[in-house]
Amino acid sequence: MGLFMTSAKLIEGKIGVQLLRMSIPMFFGMIGFALFNFFDTKFVGELGVQSLAAISYTVITVLIMFAIAFGLGTGVTATVGKAIGEKDEIKVKNLTSYGLVLSLVLGLFITVLGFPTIVPFFTFLGATEDLMPLIKDYMELWYIGVPLIIVPIIGNSAIRAQGNTFIPAIIMGVCVVFNIFLDYGLILGNWGMPKWGIFGASLATFLSRLITLLASLYFLHFKFNMLSIKKFSFQEMFKSWYEILRIGIPSILTQLVVPISVALITQLASSMNNKDQLVSTLQIGSRIDFFAIAVVASLGAVLVPFIAQNLGAKQFSRIQKALKISRFFSIVWGVLMTFLFWSLKEKIGPVFLKGQPDPVFFQYMRDFYLIIPFTFVFRMLFVIETNSLNALQKPIFTGVLTLIEFIVLYYPLANILSDYFGYWGIFYAFVLANVLCGIAAVMLNEFVFKKSWKRSLS
Q1: pLDDT tens sequence across 155-194
Q2: Separation CA 199–CA 192 (nearest Å)
Q3: 2 domain-assigned
């Protein structure tokens, strides 16, 4: 083994430069993830509206799995980052190593639970019998590969905790390129590969995620020396699990609010006219929106290790300045993206369903982007504030905010407004919930931060 390589790099130096340096590779990693989702959906869309609707239903289970993975990853990043700020080498290794064990256990649990629930779950969401064979083609292999997805997410979270966002971005980039290559071949039967349709999309994901698993474990062990595998201890494992889950469980529950809300909204959309087109619009719209939000999502993600390390070192003035920079950037970027996506509202729909135009789907996509872009600024601020709350080790506040936004406001409003405005009511409800909760998130985070700073001085 080499020297321990997880020094507290973020407790000194120019804040803006550090945030930019960390955000750029993180941004390319997230854009890569967005491109994977885009091409995955686009290639499946070329198979027809029915295939597009089927994969749109599967998005909900994918979101649930990522909610668990990223929620647990937040716990790992916050605890490992704080341990690095405290310069506790043994604690860093224990949290990283046992965090990976925990992620494997959760992955296997989801695999075992997932198989027998495929038909009843998607039937509950409103999927019809003719879509079920397509859904099973995608989900059966996908469930087998869940551990391959969760474990590297946790590994990359540990790498980001010590301030390195470049390597996770490279790992994600290689995964995305390989995934897109396999998607184009296995979904559509190009480059001499078999045309396996939706099953091909699932197989492409399985193989590309295997690469990320091997790569993340390699860098954690050989480059950063963050794994301790010689002296296994149940006592230390449960102690590490407790610390991670103390932040991770509220974060997981918070993340799960979104797919639960998506499931409820999908069920609502499935009860309306032209349900395949409407469900596809809602799911595709959420994927396309990520291109607008990715920059700020990257900034929000790097705020977690930045704030965690400075919290451990009690450098609150640096945290305050980082928040000011992040909020200003989010507002400026959000305004730019609002005008860009609003101007493209006529052009986004026809990108999908190549050669198979569907006027109803195109209309829904156009109407979606007539008003949804005006939520961008508030959604971006929400990302910044909730990531900050997680890093300040107050994930319960993030959970409450998210619960209010998606369950207390969005879903009930969508039910009420859709009775009067049809599918427009779902769009209106989304706008109202995001605007109100974006403002509330800024106010709550400012209160929590000042209280934490004051407590540190007493």
Answers
A1: 888 888 877 878 888 888 888 888 899 999 999 999 889 9
A2: 17
A3: no
